[in-house]
Write a structure and sequence with these properties.
The complex is a heterodimer of chains A (466) and B (318).
Chain A lengths: L12 H6 L13 H8 L6 E2 L12 H19 L9 H13 L9 E4 L1 H13 L5 E6 L5 H7 L3 E8 L2 E2 L1 H13 L6 E4 L13 H14 L2 E5 L15 H5 L4 E6 L11 E4 L2 H15 L4 H12 L3 H26 L5 E2 L7 E5 L6 H9 L3 E2 L1 E2 L12 E5 L5 H26 L16 H8 L22
Parallel strand pairs in A: 1-12, 3-4, 3-6, 6-7, 7-8
Antiparallel strand pairs in A: 2-9, 4-5, 8-9, 10-11, 11-14, 13-14
Helix pairs in contact in A: 3-11, 4-11, 5-10, 12-14
Chain B lengths: L2 E6 L6 H17 L3 E6 L4 H8 L3 E4 L10 H9 L8 H8 L1 H10 L7 E5 H6 L6 H8 L3 E5 L9 E3 L5 H8 L5 E6 L3 E11 L2 E4 L3 E5 L16 E4 L8 H16 L4 E9 L4 E7 L9 H8 L4 H14 L6
Parallel strand pairs in B: 1-2, 1-3
Antiparallel strand pairs in B: 4-7, 5-6, 5-7, 8-9, 8-10, 8-12, 10-11, 12-13
Helix pairs in contact in B: 1-11, 4-5
Classes of the chains: A alpha/beta (466), B alpha+beta (318).
Amino acid sequence: MSGRQPPRSTAHDLERYAGLFAQRTKVMKSSAMRDLMALTERAEVISLAGGLPDTSTFPAETYAALMATVAEEACARALQYGPTEGFAVAAHAIAEVMAAEGMAVDEGELLITTGGQQVIDLVCKTLVDPGDVIVAEAPTYPGAVPTFCSYEADVVQIEVDEHGMQIDVLEETLDRLEREGRRPKFIYTIPTFQNPGGVTMSLPRRQRLVRIAHERELLVLEDNPYGLLRYEGEPLPTLYSMDGGEFVIYLGTFSKILSPGIRLGWAAAPRPVLQKMNLGKQAADLCSSSMTQLFVAEYFAARNWREYVNSLVGIYRGRRDAMLEALQAHFPHEAAWTEPEGGLFIWATLPDYIDTTDLLARALSENVAFVPGRAAYLDGRGGSSMRLNFSGSDEAAIREGVRRIGKVVAEQVGLYGTLTGAAPAPPAVADTPRPSGEVAEQLADVLQLPRRDRTGGRGRAESSDR
Amino acid sequence: MSTVAVLQGGRSLERQVSLKSGARVEDALQRLGHNAVAIDVGADLVSRLTDLRPDAVFVALHGRDGEDGTIQELLEVLGLPYTGSGVAACIRSWDKVLTKHLLRDEGIPTPDFHAFSETAFRELGAAQALPAIERQLDFPLVVKPAAQGSALGIKFARTAADVPAAIVSAFSYDRKVLLERYVPGRDLAVSIVEEDGSARALPIVEAVPEGRDFYDFEARYEIGRTRFVCPAELPSGAAERTQELAVAAYRALGCTGFARVDLMLHEDGELYVLEANSVPGLTETSLLPQAADAAGIGFDALVERILAIALSREPAGR
């Protein structure tokens, strides 16, 4: 303990500082849901809520050897500031990762950042004035929501279906915005293994999106943390590779293919945009960690980074399959969920009378957690959906976690059936009255995904005899 | 100087708020020259208290365990003096249904209500009584878990079709739900701290939702979406009536030390008591410290007073 006295505290504290807070803090979210999320960190809770890669699979001796090499060969450099855009040796590693996904990048068009998250922040900082429009997906990455809010952006969310962002809806929305005299500053998308939806944008939609960006001269922020974590199917070209270096800002990260603890991501962007982002980064943190950039450079020099990614792909594929099987076994047949070909997340949607924020409170008493769908929307939608992570827990924990969630969902389905006079469990949801008015309007817009029947095939479940 | 164990955290859904309340109380106790020992309540609670043998226990726990009488029961068994209300008052305040029955029995106005357990719906066909309940209480009606400290699980039902989902949500938090007539009007909170053995109402805090045409319960807990005015600007006589009613509710529930009573002032001027909180929040943004400050009682003085009441009470474990 230091000898410093805690500051004198009065009940006027909040008011005293309130006058000093910037306007943007008013839209920063602090909610009951966030307090609930903090409880998911209890040791006894099986958390399917995080977005964590499994770093326990990285060999400790490799880590030790790499750090020793950095210490022996570049100690002073590792302990020193570096250039804002990052070290060239780390940029080589990035070029390699991008090449693995079919992208050629000029290393001069790269900005190494403190995690991919900083790219989102810098893009907003560079482009967004208060009230400016950002177009995002619905649902969107929950971690981008506070960033958008802190720049006081007006976020317009475009529905996602199993083929990614609905480009028809995007075009209609862009037309409407144009009529209103509002030009979006950028379109934010995670086209591959979307967070939280788990879906992947189809090739035709990718082509249309890039064409729209060119025709309307709109920037697109392509967030691609998971592209290399593909468990089935053929890779699709990134928007960046289709764009020709004009309107796509590409966000990459080492977080999911190596480590989120090293806090290294990057942006590849048209030079004029990148130069402004570089200035923004100087203001934010001067440069990203020299130590971890050298660590990455050393790691890539060993030329076996793909092997590690492949080992992760094997592990995560098994976990995804375990989660899909468990969902099939334990979720009611009115529930729908995505079947991601890669990435870290499955998005499940329950009958519309179940509020997943409240369900989380009940689930926590069974020591299991997920992210309530509302976290992925800025307008209160998503109330009946949840994001489930399968990369951060082992298969046994995933099975048990999904079983526990399924149990509380079944309870609520049964209770709702009792309350509405439908058969107790499982009730025929289609026959029950839908909430009317405002509530129904909100719910109707929530991501609609193909419902699964119990035999495991795709398509809407028609039967109500189960 | 006393050794004071500050109980905080725990497993309740309000753990985060409790940690903030607890940290703030700890700081105040240190400044007052006491030896404050923070205890994040868990399986080792009894052994830690037995080892520490504190002179008093400051209960800064919110929600289940801390406000429902469980911790108080344990402290009685251990014979340790503690802050705030005793076991019975905690049980009465924690369960909103019990609170409302007691208030009604005492002639203290509270919005009309009906309450049911999950069993009533599952096994006794209570669902069939919903239309009658809806006719009696009218729309919109408020559906809440009988016991839950924060706004979690509280929903508005605007039409009959909203009711079943609202009930399902409320059952996420408790085995009993409350359907209550909605009182349109102003949302008031009266904090009460005892002074020389009698309950004294502090200046009233009004929660004013900003930029919304309907009352969003979550807004109340989001800084910036609700403005708190203290003392509330009320028509002449209304403040006194509100405070008197709050003190009457405090007494009816048998609270001791301090508490917060939440009320609604109907558009027609009638007052209704909604609930009482036996361990109200003590964070920077909480209502009780704001009210105390408006009454000229700084946070340290507030903590000192609450502690003194605990120490002056008959030894626990009678």
